[in-house]
Amino acid sequence: MDHMTAEIVSYYRDRYEEAARLGRRPQSRLERIRTLELLREVLPEAPARVLDVGGGPGAYARDLVAAGYEVRLVDIVPAHVEQARAGRPPVEAVVGDARSLPEVDGSWHATLLLGPLYHLHQPADRVRALREAIRVTEPGGPVVAAAISRFAGPIDFAATARFNERTLDEAVRLRSSGVNDASTGFTQAYFHRVSELVGECAEAGLANVTIHGVEGPAWAAAEAAIGGPSEQAVFEAALQLARVYGTEPDLVASSCHMLAIGTAPARG
Q1: Does domain 3-263 match CATH 3.40.50.150?
Q2: Residue 53: left (phi > 0), alpha (psi -120 to 50), or beta?
Q3: What is the pTM assigned to this prediction?
Q4: Mean pLDDT, the chain, as a whole number?
């Protein structure tokens, strides 16, 4: 295991409770609602076989198992694999690397890649992970890959009143770098521009790609409204706007997360 991977494993094992993340904040609740809605739109009907690569403790996998899908989760963090297996309903889960999946070509009806891309700094590694997801998916099957927007962190700091000179400097640096400063709280990560995500999907060979903004353009307003009299109203408006503007090119990068949804091409 290389140093960067070891640091990511340590972060999720010792410092951050990923299992609770999707219910913790307005942004993450929007992420969960919209991701599940998009998955319902593109996945084949249950009991299709779905490979959840980088699926963490199994938040999405568990929903899919409950809906009748046959799911296997692959994650680089052993603690996440243990949590996925131990939850209810339990999820079949194994430790593995998105860049080298222990799966047969074309053996899954659909593949999810909802975490690995933003933990890989090098474009070649991200393309390799996408190619692996394509390889294990049957021709014509959906491949869904998540990325974090280049602008999400600074917007989040502003919305939650944590913006200062240091985060201003980070916002300037991220415009050209995209590499997260792990000392700000999150672990090793890379944040995408839309054009980069499109280019990496194309290089990997993913077909029929559409980029979705997951949380929509008003997620930061929902964060800023926490504790105020309009908290729920702002959240509901943010959700509606996320649905309306999900594929609006000029607004996709205003979301915290982006989903590239495409299909595995025919082989040969």
Answers
A1: yes
A2: beta
A3: 0.96
A4: 96
